[in-house]
# Entry
Amino acid sequence: MPSERHAKTPVDRLDETAARAELDRLAEALNAANRAYHTEDAPRISDAEYDALKARNAAIEDAFPHLKRADSPSEQVGGPVADGFAKVTHAVRMMSLGNAFEDAEVAEFDARVRRYLGLEDGAPLAFTAEPKIDGLSLNLRYEGGRLVQAATRGDGETGENVTANARTVDDIPERLDDAPEVLEVRGEVYMSHEDFAALNGRQSERGDKTFANPRNAAAGSLRQLDARITRDRPLRFFAYGWGELSEPLAGTQYDAIARLAELGFRTNPLTVRCDGPDGMLAQYSAIEQGRATLGYDIDGVVYKVDDLDYQRRLGFRSTTPRWALAHKFPAETAWTRLEKIEIQVGRTGALSPVARLTPVTVGGVVVSNATLHNEDYIAGRDAGGNPIRGGKDIREGDWVQVYRAGDVIPKVADVDLEKRPEDAAPYAFPTVCPECGSDAIREEGDAVRRCTGGLICPAQAVEKLRHFVSRAAFDIEGLGAKQVEQFYRDGWIAEPADIFTLAERFGSGARQLKNREGWGEKSASNLFEAIDEKRKIDLRRVIFALGIRHVGEVAAGDLARHFGTWESFAVGVEAAIPAAHAHRAAAEAVGAEQAAAKVEGRRARVTETREAVWAEADLPMGAKVAWDDLVGIDGIGATVAASLADAFAQEAERASIDRLIAHLDVRPDEPPDTEGSPVAGKTVVFTGTLEKMTRAEAKARAEALGAKVSGSVSAKTDLVVAGPGAGSKAKKAAELGIETVDEDGWLALIGDG
# Structure
């Protein structure tokens, strides 16, 4: 094991060498603990010791973010699949749930669902509300009414085959009468408080180690390689959903759960149907008040859209369903001292304040850091200038209340002014970057102050490289965050283009990669081959990999679909640069007009001001056309367009991009298979109210047929679909002689009528 000589050294006294050694030690210790607990069901350290190790690991990573290991324990969940368990690929992915912690988020969930479905505020929309069991998720597969497989959630796509163990749980039926031919039942394995106490008593009497809590006991019991041990453990099971089905269980979530109960599964009796946010919050309150009397652990309430047809239409995000939400119970809190406020610089130059705390246990976890969001939050106000925490600011040396909500980063909830040191001074947020000394500016409307150093800022350079090799970007096998950080520190890589010259610079000669510690001839050769494989890459990945502010995966995909090729994309963005500058000038003029109007007690002439500045701009021919084309892409808009233009307008940034592209064969965005599509290659604009589908559904359908969906009408528009209430866009289409159809005409055109 790596040396433990730094184990008791406070984090703020570690130098870089000591911090790296300590992260290595912690990784080894935590990996061993994870395997002992999750895989071998034989914990070697207490929960408190484990939490302390993880907290120290997180504190060091926060203090030295560039030293974070590629296999960091902070990025791992659970342990590896035990040798005795086969892997099971779920027929239907087991998703996680989005979380809410405030009542207002529940109302927003209802509103968000209504917007997506196109339902008006008064239209009926029912939800179910049920306790969120704190246990282990399990998927049970029945074929012909017989249990044939049981699998843990795992990473959502692949879990552990625990069929033999699941057969020993009394609440899990072996056979079902009158069930669908294929039925996957999903639920939570848990242990009651009474059974947990009895189990720990027996463990203690035998001299065996006891479990820390019912959840850990249930998880460890279900993962026993010897099913006889599982049989002796008092496990229970609540069914709450399903995966693959050969036929529907019912038309609603509530009735489907009732059907599972009829088939012989235990379902939670506190599951109710609610008419909207008021009913959902009433059930949340009732469950929370009775939480201590349930006899088993819960950590919140889960809301689900009741109508299963609505669930199907709402679908999923990348990892969570749009039709469900977990409303967590209030986070546990604790008071501690804020020792220091430190500033971290991210890949977009954002200056993020972090509170370094005297370590304190909050909800069973040792906390030593908390986010402070931005300078307004520290000053005791929100982005609109309104007071928060009663207007109390946060200072170094303050006694603060810390809370954790679920697994998110701890936050500071309050300040005890009576314990404030007499010499505590208001925190002066830096106006220069602590990494490179460049000006740190705060744009109007932005809550965050950002470094202007760009490529010369080491914090941004490292973060941009980490982003560049991330999974959704270039995803080069063997070249992760750890490797690019090391190469950057050693001067081997300064920008993305340098990755593609590694072989010619360090493939031979005195400083060969294969001679570096941790590398050999085979691993070096594999890396060079992996890099070469990524020279040919999709346009959307390239756009996302550039790390341009506001340009995420979705926006990168929208841009790639619209422009098709790198050449068209680069030319289009570059042509829009003058217009982007004019747009910013117009925005600044509008801000000044609004400020003056507020002082003088009058309304600002926002539209007139913007149009006046825009009209006075001396734009080159084609600049406005290019800008309109860019902001007209559905899902892009002025903010993303301006950010793209800023990146291409900076001489150093653009030169770096050009050097990268010179090494690549950027593949055009692959259009969908649209053989026979009447709208393939056409630009479509939807305007007005659609009555038979929502705007989101219409856009998805059009893009699946090979059409480009734009947010504005121009000479490049081929078709306008106008519903009731269509205004200026329909008028402009008529002026330009563009074909216009109503919703029925659109559906008939694409064959959905």
Notes: The mean pLDDT is 85. Residues 16-39 form the longest helix (24 residues). The radius of gyration is 29 Å.
